[in-house]
Amino acid sequence: MHYYGTSKVNDAGHLEIGGVDTLELVEKFGTPVYVYDVELIRERAKGFKETFDQLGVKAQVAYASKAFSTIAMVQLANEEGLSLDVVSGGELYTAIAADFPVERIHFHGNNKSKEELLMAIDEQIGCIVVDNFYELEMLTQLCEEKNRKMSILLRVTPGIEAHTHDYILTGQEDSKFGFDLQNGQAEKALLEAIKSPFIEVLGLHCHIGSQIFDTTGFVLAAQKIMAHLSEWKANHHFESKVLNLGGGFGIRYTEEDQPIQPAEYVEVIIKEVKEQVNNLEMQMPEIWIEPGRSLVGDAGTTLYKIGSRKEVPNVRKYLAIDGGMSDNIRPALYQAKYEAVLANKPLQAPDETVSIAGKCCESGDMLIWDLPLPKAGDHDVLAVFCTGAYGYSMANNYNRIPRPPVVFVENGEARVVVKRESFEDLLRLDLPLKETASLKK
After folding, report:
1. Is 135 flagged in the annotation as binding?
2. Which residues are recorded as modified (N6-(pyridoxal phosphate)lysine) (predicted)?
3. Going by fewer Cβ within 10 Å, which terminus of the chain is more open, N or C?
4. Cβ atoms within 10 Å, residue 271
5. Which of the following is catalytic: 127, 206, 360, 361?
6. 407 vs 415: CA distance, rounded Å
Protein backbone atom coordinates (compact mmCIF):
# COMPACT_ATOMS: atom_id res chain seq x y z
CA MET A 1 0.00 0.00 0.00
CA HIS A 2 1.29 3.44 -0.97
CA TYR A 3 0.96 6.14 1.69
CA TYR A 4 0.79 9.82 0.79
CA GLY A 5 2.30 12.86 2.45
CA THR A 6 2.42 12.50 6.22
CA SER A 7 0.22 9.38 6.25
CA LYS A 8 1.82 6.46 8.05
CA VAL A 9 1.15 3.61 10.43
CA ASN A 10 1.82 4.76 14.01
CA ASP A 11 3.05 2.83 17.05
CA ALA A 12 -0.51 1.83 17.90
CA GLY A 13 -0.79 0.11 14.51
CA HIS A 14 -3.33 2.66 13.26
CA LEU A 15 -3.34 4.91 10.22
CA GLU A 16 -2.09 8.36 11.15
CA ILE A 17 -2.37 11.56 9.10
CA GLY A 18 -0.71 14.86 9.95
CA GLY A 19 0.45 13.43 13.25
CA VAL A 20 -3.12 12.55 14.29
CA ASP A 21 -4.44 9.01 14.78
CA THR A 22 -7.37 8.48 12.42
CA LEU A 23 -9.28 6.58 15.12
CA GLU A 24 -9.04 9.67 17.32
CA LEU A 25 -10.43 11.70 14.43
CA VAL A 26 -13.34 9.29 14.10
CA GLU A 27 -14.03 9.39 17.84
CA LYS A 28 -14.01 13.19 17.86
CA PHE A 29 -15.68 14.05 14.56
CA GLY A 30 -17.67 10.93 13.63
CA THR A 31 -18.00 9.38 10.18
CA PRO A 32 -18.01 9.89 7.31
CA VAL A 33 -15.36 12.59 7.56
CA TYR A 34 -13.06 14.16 4.97
CA VAL A 35 -9.51 14.51 6.32
CA TYR A 36 -6.94 16.73 4.60
CA ASP A 37 -3.16 16.51 5.02
CA VAL A 38 -2.29 20.22 4.99
CA GLU A 39 1.46 19.64 4.84
CA LEU A 40 1.05 17.69 1.60
CA ILE A 41 -1.00 20.51 0.03
CA ARG A 42 1.72 22.99 0.96
CA GLU A 43 4.40 20.68 -0.46
CA ARG A 44 2.57 20.35 -3.79
CA ALA A 45 2.05 24.11 -4.05
CA LYS A 46 5.74 24.73 -3.48
CA GLY A 47 6.60 22.05 -6.04
CA PHE A 48 4.88 24.09 -8.75
CA LYS A 49 5.80 27.59 -7.59
CA GLU A 50 9.45 27.10 -6.67
CA THR A 51 10.35 25.64 -10.05
CA PHE A 52 9.25 28.83 -11.79
CA ASP A 53 11.20 30.88 -9.24
CA GLN A 54 14.34 28.78 -9.59
CA LEU A 55 14.26 29.08 -13.38
CA GLY A 56 13.62 32.82 -13.21
CA VAL A 57 10.33 32.76 -15.11
CA LYS A 58 7.51 35.14 -14.25
CA ALA A 59 4.44 33.04 -13.56
CA GLN A 60 1.19 32.54 -11.69
CA VAL A 61 0.23 29.19 -10.23
CA ALA A 62 -3.54 29.37 -9.80
CA TYR A 63 -5.34 26.83 -7.64
CA ALA A 64 -8.34 25.50 -9.58
CA SER A 65 -10.76 25.78 -6.70
CA LYS A 66 -13.50 23.72 -8.34
CA ALA A 67 -11.56 20.70 -7.04
CA PHE A 68 -12.27 21.73 -3.44
CA SER A 69 -13.54 25.18 -2.48
CA THR A 70 -14.02 26.29 1.10
CA ILE A 71 -13.00 29.42 2.96
CA ALA A 72 -10.17 27.60 4.75
CA MET A 73 -8.84 26.06 1.53
CA VAL A 74 -8.88 29.41 -0.24
CA GLN A 75 -7.01 30.96 2.68
CA LEU A 76 -4.47 28.12 2.56
CA ALA A 77 -3.93 28.80 -1.15
CA ASN A 78 -3.29 32.44 -0.30
CA GLU A 79 -0.80 31.49 2.42
CA GLU A 80 1.16 29.59 -0.23
CA GLY A 81 1.17 32.54 -2.62
CA LEU A 82 -1.10 30.91 -5.17
CA SER A 83 -3.54 32.64 -7.47
CA LEU A 84 -7.10 31.33 -7.62
CA ASP A 85 -9.39 30.06 -10.36
CA VAL A 86 -13.14 30.27 -9.82
CA VAL A 87 -15.85 29.00 -12.15
CA SER A 88 -19.05 30.36 -10.60
CA GLY A 89 -20.49 33.19 -8.57
CA GLY A 90 -20.48 30.88 -5.54
CA GLU A 91 -16.75 30.16 -5.85
CA LEU A 92 -16.06 33.87 -6.38
CA TYR A 93 -18.19 34.72 -3.34
CA THR A 94 -16.23 32.16 -1.29
CA ALA A 95 -12.94 33.73 -2.39
CA ILE A 96 -14.15 37.19 -1.44
CA ALA A 97 -15.42 35.93 1.93
CA ALA A 98 -11.99 34.38 2.51
CA ASP A 99 -10.41 37.80 1.84
CA PHE A 100 -8.39 36.40 -1.06
CA PRO A 101 -6.50 39.14 -2.96
CA VAL A 102 -8.89 39.95 -5.81
CA GLU A 103 -6.08 40.83 -8.21
CA ARG A 104 -5.06 37.14 -8.20
CA ILE A 105 -8.53 35.77 -8.98
CA HIS A 106 -9.25 34.37 -12.46
CA PHE A 107 -12.88 33.70 -13.44
CA HIS A 108 -13.61 30.76 -15.77
CA GLY A 109 -16.83 29.28 -17.13
CA ASN A 110 -18.65 28.72 -20.40
CA ASN A 111 -21.91 30.43 -19.39
CA LYS A 112 -21.23 33.21 -16.91
CA SER A 113 -24.35 35.12 -16.04
CA LYS A 114 -24.72 38.89 -16.15
CA GLU A 115 -24.84 38.90 -12.35
CA GLU A 116 -21.61 36.88 -12.10
CA LEU A 117 -19.81 39.21 -14.51
CA LEU A 118 -21.05 42.25 -12.59
CA MET A 119 -19.71 40.74 -9.36
CA ALA A 120 -16.32 40.22 -11.02
CA ILE A 121 -16.29 43.78 -12.41
CA ASP A 122 -17.40 45.34 -9.12
CA GLU A 123 -14.75 43.41 -7.20
CA GLN A 124 -12.15 44.30 -9.85
CA ILE A 125 -10.76 40.78 -10.00
CA GLY A 126 -7.51 40.14 -11.82
CA CYS A 127 -8.78 38.41 -14.93
CA ILE A 128 -11.83 36.97 -16.67
CA VAL A 129 -11.22 34.02 -18.98
CA VAL A 130 -13.63 34.75 -21.82
CA ASP A 131 -15.11 31.62 -23.33
CA ASN A 132 -17.37 32.70 -26.21
CA PHE A 133 -18.67 35.61 -28.28
CA TYR A 134 -21.84 35.94 -26.20
CA GLU A 135 -19.77 36.50 -23.07
CA LEU A 136 -17.34 38.83 -24.82
CA GLU A 137 -20.16 41.07 -26.03
CA MET A 138 -21.90 41.11 -22.64
CA LEU A 139 -18.68 41.79 -20.72
CA THR A 140 -17.71 44.64 -23.06
CA GLN A 141 -21.13 46.23 -22.66
CA LEU A 142 -21.09 45.90 -18.86
CA CYS A 143 -17.59 47.38 -18.62
CA GLU A 144 -18.69 50.34 -20.75
CA GLU A 145 -21.77 50.89 -18.59
CA LYS A 146 -19.68 50.68 -15.40
CA ASN A 147 -16.80 52.67 -16.91
CA ARG A 148 -14.47 49.96 -15.63
CA LYS A 149 -11.63 48.26 -17.47
CA MET A 150 -11.23 44.48 -17.26
CA SER A 151 -8.29 42.25 -18.13
CA ILE A 152 -9.16 39.05 -19.97
CA LEU A 153 -7.70 35.89 -21.40
CA LEU A 154 -9.31 34.29 -24.43
CA ARG A 155 -9.87 30.58 -23.91
CA VAL A 156 -8.93 28.68 -27.06
CA THR A 157 -9.16 25.07 -28.17
CA PRO A 158 -5.84 24.19 -29.76
CA GLY A 159 -6.98 20.89 -31.23
CA ILE A 160 -5.23 18.71 -28.66
CA GLU A 161 -6.82 16.37 -26.14
CA ALA A 162 -4.74 14.71 -23.44
CA HIS A 163 -5.58 12.08 -20.87
CA THR A 164 -3.12 9.99 -18.86
CA HIS A 165 -0.40 8.92 -21.32
CA ASP A 166 -2.46 9.46 -24.46
CA TYR A 167 -2.90 12.58 -26.53
CA ILE A 168 -5.03 13.17 -29.61
CA LEU A 169 -4.46 15.75 -32.35
CA THR A 170 -7.75 16.96 -33.76
CA GLY A 171 -8.73 19.52 -36.35
CA GLN A 172 -11.60 21.63 -35.15
CA GLU A 173 -12.03 20.79 -31.49
CA ASP A 174 -15.54 19.63 -30.58
CA SER A 175 -15.87 21.21 -27.14
CA LYS A 176 -18.32 23.34 -25.23
CA PHE A 177 -15.36 25.48 -24.13
CA GLY A 178 -13.43 28.18 -25.89
CA PHE A 179 -12.72 29.73 -29.29
CA ASP A 180 -11.34 27.39 -31.92
CA LEU A 181 -7.85 28.23 -33.19
CA GLN A 182 -8.12 26.29 -36.42
CA ASN A 183 -11.28 27.83 -37.90
CA GLY A 184 -10.50 31.48 -37.16
CA GLN A 185 -12.87 31.95 -34.21
CA ALA A 186 -10.04 32.81 -31.83
CA GLU A 187 -8.59 35.42 -34.17
CA LYS A 188 -12.02 36.97 -34.69
CA ALA A 189 -12.53 37.13 -30.91
CA LEU A 190 -9.16 38.80 -30.48
CA LEU A 191 -9.97 41.49 -33.05
CA GLU A 192 -13.33 42.17 -31.40
CA ALA A 193 -11.82 42.35 -27.92
CA ILE A 194 -8.95 44.71 -28.74
CA LYS A 195 -11.38 47.22 -30.29
CA SER A 196 -12.80 48.08 -26.87
CA PRO A 197 -10.90 50.57 -24.66
CA PHE A 198 -12.47 48.80 -21.67
CA ILE A 199 -10.96 45.38 -22.43
CA GLU A 200 -7.30 44.45 -22.06
CA VAL A 201 -6.40 41.14 -23.68
CA LEU A 202 -3.58 39.69 -21.59
CA GLY A 203 -3.23 36.57 -23.70
CA LEU A 204 -4.59 33.11 -24.32
CA HIS A 205 -5.73 30.20 -22.19
CA CYS A 206 -6.19 26.52 -22.97
CA HIS A 207 -6.99 23.38 -21.01
CA ILE A 208 -6.23 20.15 -22.82
CA GLY A 209 -7.49 17.46 -20.43
CA SER A 210 -7.30 15.92 -16.98
CA GLN A 211 -5.36 13.31 -15.03
CA ILE A 212 -2.43 13.73 -17.45
CA PHE A 213 0.76 11.75 -16.72
CA ASP A 214 2.76 12.98 -19.70
CA THR A 215 4.15 16.34 -20.83
CA THR A 216 3.66 15.78 -24.57
CA GLY A 217 0.22 17.37 -24.71
CA PHE A 218 1.43 20.55 -23.02
CA VAL A 219 4.37 20.79 -25.46
CA LEU A 220 2.08 20.41 -28.47
CA ALA A 221 -0.40 22.95 -27.09
CA ALA A 222 2.38 25.49 -26.51
CA GLN A 223 3.69 24.96 -30.05
CA LYS A 224 0.30 25.44 -31.69
CA ILE A 225 -0.66 28.48 -29.63
CA MET A 226 2.71 30.20 -30.05
CA ALA A 227 2.52 29.67 -33.82
CA HIS A 228 -0.81 31.52 -33.92
CA LEU A 229 0.49 34.25 -31.62
CA SER A 230 3.38 34.76 -34.02
CA GLU A 231 0.92 35.27 -36.88
CA TRP A 232 -1.16 37.67 -34.81
CA LYS A 233 1.94 39.67 -33.95
CA ALA A 234 2.74 40.04 -37.63
CA ASN A 235 -0.82 40.69 -38.78
CA HIS A 236 -2.35 42.60 -35.85
CA HIS A 237 0.64 43.85 -33.80
CA PHE A 238 -0.64 41.84 -30.82
CA GLU A 239 1.84 40.37 -28.35
CA SER A 240 0.57 38.06 -25.66
CA LYS A 241 1.63 39.03 -22.15
CA VAL A 242 0.29 35.77 -20.69
CA LEU A 243 0.18 32.17 -21.86
CA ASN A 244 -2.03 30.00 -19.63
CA LEU A 245 -1.62 26.28 -20.35
CA GLY A 246 -4.25 25.20 -17.82
CA GLY A 247 -4.08 22.21 -15.52
CA GLY A 248 -4.91 18.52 -15.64
CA PHE A 249 -1.75 17.27 -13.91
CA GLY A 250 -2.38 13.70 -12.79
CA ILE A 251 -2.24 12.07 -9.36
CA ARG A 252 -1.95 8.48 -8.17
CA TYR A 253 -5.34 6.97 -7.32
CA THR A 254 -4.27 3.33 -7.62
CA GLU A 255 -1.05 1.42 -8.22
CA GLU A 256 -1.79 1.54 -11.97
CA ASP A 257 -1.27 5.32 -11.97
CA GLN A 258 2.26 6.65 -12.42
CA PRO A 259 2.20 10.46 -12.24
CA ILE A 260 5.26 12.67 -12.57
CA GLN A 261 6.36 15.35 -10.13
CA PRO A 262 5.04 18.95 -10.38
CA ALA A 263 8.53 20.28 -11.13
CA GLU A 264 8.81 18.06 -14.21
CA TYR A 265 5.65 19.49 -15.80
CA VAL A 266 6.86 23.02 -15.11
CA GLU A 267 10.39 22.44 -16.43
CA VAL A 268 9.12 21.00 -19.72
CA ILE A 269 6.56 23.78 -20.20
CA ILE A 270 9.16 26.49 -19.57
CA LYS A 271 11.69 24.89 -21.89
CA GLU A 272 9.18 24.64 -24.73
CA VAL A 273 7.83 28.17 -24.38
CA LYS A 274 11.36 29.61 -24.28
CA GLU A 275 12.28 27.64 -27.39
CA GLN A 276 9.22 28.92 -29.24
CA VAL A 277 9.89 32.48 -28.12
CA ASN A 278 13.45 32.30 -29.45
CA ASN A 279 12.48 30.63 -32.72
CA LEU A 280 9.62 33.02 -33.43
CA GLU A 281 11.39 36.15 -32.11
CA MET A 282 8.64 37.02 -29.64
CA GLN A 283 8.60 38.40 -26.13
CA MET A 284 8.56 35.88 -23.28
CA PRO A 285 5.02 35.68 -21.89
CA GLU A 286 4.20 35.22 -18.25
CA ILE A 287 3.28 31.53 -17.85
CA TRP A 288 0.17 30.60 -15.90
CA ILE A 289 -0.90 27.11 -14.89
CA GLU A 290 -3.91 25.81 -12.97
CA PRO A 291 -3.32 22.79 -10.72
CA GLY A 292 -6.41 21.66 -8.84
CA ARG A 293 -6.59 17.91 -8.31
CA SER A 294 -2.78 17.72 -8.17
CA LEU A 295 -2.73 20.05 -5.16
CA VAL A 296 -5.50 18.52 -3.06
CA GLY A 297 -6.43 15.12 -4.52
CA ASP A 298 -4.11 12.77 -2.70
CA ALA A 299 -4.07 15.03 0.37
CA GLY A 300 -7.63 13.92 1.12
CA THR A 301 -8.72 10.72 2.89
CA THR A 302 -12.31 9.83 3.72
CA LEU A 303 -13.00 7.79 6.84
CA TYR A 304 -16.11 5.58 7.10
CA LYS A 305 -17.51 3.10 9.59
CA ILE A 306 -18.22 -0.39 8.32
CA GLY A 307 -21.87 -1.40 8.62
CA SER A 308 -23.79 -4.30 7.17
CA ARG A 309 -22.35 -7.31 5.37
CA LYS A 310 -23.94 -9.37 2.63
CA GLU A 311 -22.52 -12.53 1.10
CA VAL A 312 -23.76 -13.97 -2.18
CA PRO A 313 -22.32 -17.52 -2.21
CA ASN A 314 -19.76 -18.07 -4.95
CA VAL A 315 -20.41 -14.55 -6.30
CA ARG A 316 -19.44 -11.65 -4.05
CA LYS A 317 -19.10 -10.29 -0.53
CA TYR A 318 -20.48 -6.81 0.10
CA LEU A 319 -19.44 -4.52 2.94
CA ALA A 320 -21.55 -1.41 3.42
CA ILE A 321 -20.23 1.89 4.75
CA ASP A 322 -22.04 4.85 6.29
CA GLY A 323 -21.49 7.04 3.21
CA GLY A 324 -21.22 6.54 -0.52
CA MET A 325 -22.31 8.43 -3.61
CA SER A 326 -23.57 11.30 -1.46
CA ASP A 327 -20.01 12.12 -0.37
CA ASN A 328 -18.10 10.61 -3.34
CA ILE A 329 -20.08 10.42 -6.56
CA ARG A 330 -17.05 9.82 -8.80
CA PRO A 331 -17.25 5.99 -8.86
CA ALA A 332 -20.95 6.09 -9.78
CA LEU A 333 -20.49 8.97 -12.22
CA TYR A 334 -17.50 7.71 -14.21
CA GLN A 335 -16.21 4.52 -12.64
CA ALA A 336 -13.37 6.20 -10.73
CA LYS A 337 -11.12 3.78 -8.84
CA TYR A 338 -9.73 4.08 -5.32
CA GLU A 339 -7.56 2.20 -2.84
CA ALA A 340 -8.46 1.74 0.82
CA VAL A 341 -7.35 0.10 4.07
CA LEU A 342 -8.86 -0.54 7.47
CA ALA A 343 -7.60 2.43 9.47
CA ASN A 344 -7.49 0.41 12.70
CA LYS A 345 -5.40 -2.42 11.17
CA PRO A 346 -3.75 -1.18 7.96
CA LEU A 347 -0.85 -3.66 8.10
CA GLN A 348 -2.92 -6.77 8.73
CA ALA A 349 -2.84 -9.18 5.79
CA PRO A 350 -6.08 -9.43 3.80
CA ASP A 351 -8.02 -12.67 4.13
CA GLU A 352 -10.99 -11.89 1.91
CA THR A 353 -12.00 -9.81 -1.09
CA VAL A 354 -15.00 -7.57 -0.63
CA SER A 355 -16.84 -4.88 -2.55
CA ILE A 356 -17.56 -1.63 -0.72
CA ALA A 357 -21.18 -0.55 -1.04
CA GLY A 358 -22.56 2.86 -0.17
CA LYS A 359 -25.74 3.38 1.82
CA CYS A 360 -27.69 5.27 -0.84
CA CYS A 361 -30.77 3.64 -2.34
CA GLU A 362 -29.13 2.98 -5.71
CA SER A 363 -27.61 -0.23 -7.08
CA GLY A 364 -24.89 1.91 -8.63
CA ASP A 365 -23.76 3.23 -5.26
CA MET A 366 -20.59 1.16 -5.12
CA LEU A 367 -17.39 2.80 -3.93
CA ILE A 368 -14.77 0.09 -4.59
CA TRP A 369 -15.10 -3.28 -6.30
CA ASP A 370 -13.04 -6.30 -5.25
CA LEU A 371 -10.96 -4.82 -2.44
CA PRO A 372 -8.66 -7.18 -0.49
CA LEU A 373 -9.18 -6.58 3.25
CA PRO A 374 -8.77 -8.31 6.59
CA LYS A 375 -12.04 -9.67 7.93
CA ALA A 376 -14.05 -6.54 8.79
CA GLY A 377 -17.16 -5.72 10.76
CA ASP A 378 -18.98 -2.82 12.36
CA HIS A 379 -16.10 -2.16 14.77
CA ASP A 380 -13.78 -1.25 11.87
CA VAL A 381 -13.02 2.01 10.07
CA LEU A 382 -12.38 2.17 6.33
CA ALA A 383 -9.92 4.80 5.06
CA VAL A 384 -10.34 5.61 1.36
CA PHE A 385 -7.36 7.45 -0.11
CA CYS A 386 -7.11 10.30 -2.61
CA THR A 387 -10.59 11.74 -2.12
CA GLY A 388 -9.42 15.33 -1.76
CA ALA A 389 -10.52 16.47 -5.23
CA TYR A 390 -14.16 16.43 -6.30
CA GLY A 391 -15.32 14.59 -3.19
CA TYR A 392 -16.59 17.41 -1.02
CA SER A 393 -17.10 19.73 -3.99
CA MET A 394 -19.49 17.24 -5.64
CA ALA A 395 -21.12 16.04 -2.41
CA ASN A 396 -24.90 16.05 -2.36
CA ASN A 397 -27.92 15.41 -0.18
CA TYR A 398 -29.39 12.49 -2.10
CA ASN A 399 -31.66 10.45 0.19
CA ARG A 400 -31.54 13.49 2.50
CA ILE A 401 -28.13 12.44 3.75
CA PRO A 402 -26.24 15.30 5.44
CA ARG A 403 -22.81 16.12 4.00
CA PRO A 404 -19.77 15.16 6.10
CA PRO A 405 -17.47 17.61 7.86
CA VAL A 406 -14.05 18.57 6.57
CA VAL A 407 -11.08 18.36 8.95
CA PHE A 408 -7.60 19.79 8.32
CA VAL A 409 -4.72 18.01 10.09
CA GLU A 410 -1.21 19.38 10.43
CA ASN A 411 1.60 18.98 12.96
CA GLY A 412 -0.46 16.84 15.32
CA GLU A 413 -3.44 19.19 15.36
CA ALA A 414 -6.89 18.72 13.84
CA ARG A 415 -9.34 21.49 13.11
CA VAL A 416 -12.82 21.43 11.58
CA VAL A 417 -12.98 23.75 8.57
CA VAL A 418 -16.47 22.69 7.45
CA LYS A 419 -19.03 21.57 10.00
CA ARG A 420 -21.06 18.40 9.58
CA GLU A 421 -24.50 19.12 8.21
CA SER A 422 -27.41 18.35 10.51
CA PHE A 423 -30.93 17.24 9.69
CA GLU A 424 -31.99 20.77 10.62
CA ASP A 425 -29.60 22.12 7.97
CA LEU A 426 -31.33 19.96 5.37
CA LEU A 427 -34.65 21.67 6.13
CA ARG A 428 -33.31 25.21 6.44
CA LEU A 429 -34.61 26.36 3.06
CA ASP A 430 -37.79 24.25 3.03
CA LEU A 431 -41.16 25.90 3.48
CA PRO A 432 -44.35 24.14 4.63
CA LEU A 433 -47.02 23.88 1.97
CA LYS A 434 -49.38 26.33 3.69
CA GLU A 435 -46.66 29.00 3.84
CA THR A 436 -45.63 28.86 0.18
CA ALA A 437 -46.75 31.75 -1.97
CA SER A 438 -48.97 30.88 -4.90
CA LEU A 439 -48.09 32.14 -8.36
CA LYS A 440 -51.76 32.15 -9.30
CA LYS A 441 -53.40 35.55 -9.24
Report:
1. no
2. 66
3. C
4. 14
5. 361
6. 5
Segment 327-383, tens digit of pLDDT: 999 999 989 999 999 999 999 999 999 999 999 999 999 999 999 999 999 999 999
Give me the half-sphere count of Cα atoms (radius 13 Å) on the Cβ side of residue 207. 25
360 tagged catalytic: no
Distance in angstroms (rounded) separating the CA atoms of residues 180 and 227: 14
Each residue's pLDDT tens digit, 72-101: 999 999 999 999 999 999 999 999 999 999
- Give the pTM: 0.95
Alpha-carbon dihedral sign for residues 40, 214, 252, 329: positive
CATH class for the region spanning 8-30+299-426: mainly beta
390 is an annotated ligand-binding site residue: yes
Answer positive or negative: Cα dihedral of 178, 182, 186, 192: negative
CATH number of this structure's domain 38-289, picked from the four choices 3.40.50.920, 3.40.50.720, 3.40.50.1950, 3.20.20.10: 3.20.20.10
Q: Assign 74 to helix, strand or coil.
A: helix
342: Cα within 13 Å, side-chain hemisphere: 21
Domain boundaries, the chain: 8-30+299-426, 38-289
